[in-house]
Each structure stands twice: as C-alpha cells, then as structure tokens.
C-alpha cells in the first residue's frame, strides 16, 4: 500500500539520486533533456497519492459505517455479547457432542 508507493520513488533506479525514471522505463523523465530535480517532484506526487487514497477511503468508510452505527446495526445485543458470539451463533448444541453412549459406541 503506502510503503509500496513511497518505495517506488525512494528506490527508483534512475540516472542518479536526483533523477527519476517513472513511466519512461529506463530513460529519465523528460529525456533526452533529462532535467535534474525530477525525483523530488515524483516523491511529492507519491506522498499526495497516499494522502488522496487515505482520504478517499476514510470518506467512503464514514459514508457506509456512520449510518450503520447510528442505526445500531454494528453491535450485537447484550444477551449475545454476554454469552459470546461463538456460543450464541456458531455452536450447534449437538453437532459434535460426545456423550457416554456415543463414546462407548466408537
């Protein structure tokens, strides 16, 4: 995610530390004129990309989860919470129950 986006700028194998390859493959951005300082612009662009993606994700998460929270749909009722979700919802009472009769037959 974010580390991969930053690493793309940090570890770019360009002409030198001040140059950046980006979408141009192994030739420098702006080749053949290949201006110095492209790496800084690319690094800032990648940071802005991370901020934009985080903002987009936060916005749509709030858009979905806030109404669910306000409607009370994100929380189990008190009885289910006191029993535990496994016991209340996921454990049939006789699915794998070992009784003395079934253990003797096995």
At a glance:
The protein is mainly α and 106 residues long. 56% of the residues lie in helices and 0% in strands. It has helices at 2-10, 38-70, 78-83, 85-89, 100-105.
Strand content: under 5%
Give the CA-based shape.
elongated
Strands, total number: 0
Main beta-sheet strand count, sense and barrel state: none
| Poorly predicted runs of 5 or more residues | none
Note the total helix count: 5
How far apart lie the N and C ends?
52 Å
**Helicity range:** 55-70%
Order of helices and strands: HHHHH
Quaternary structure state of the chains depicted: single chain
Q: What class, by secondary structure content? A: mainly alpha
Query: What is the alpha-carbon Rg in Å?
Result: 28 Å
Q: What's the rounded overall pLDDT mean?
A: 77
Descriptive notes:
The protein is mostly helical and 106 residues long. 56% of the residues lie in helices and 0% in strands. The mean pLDDT is 77.
Keywords:
single chain, 106 residues, mainly alpha, 56% helix, 0% strand
Strand and helix layout:
Layout: H1 2-10, H2 38-70, H3 78-83, H4 85-89, H5 100-105
Helix pairs in contact: 1-2
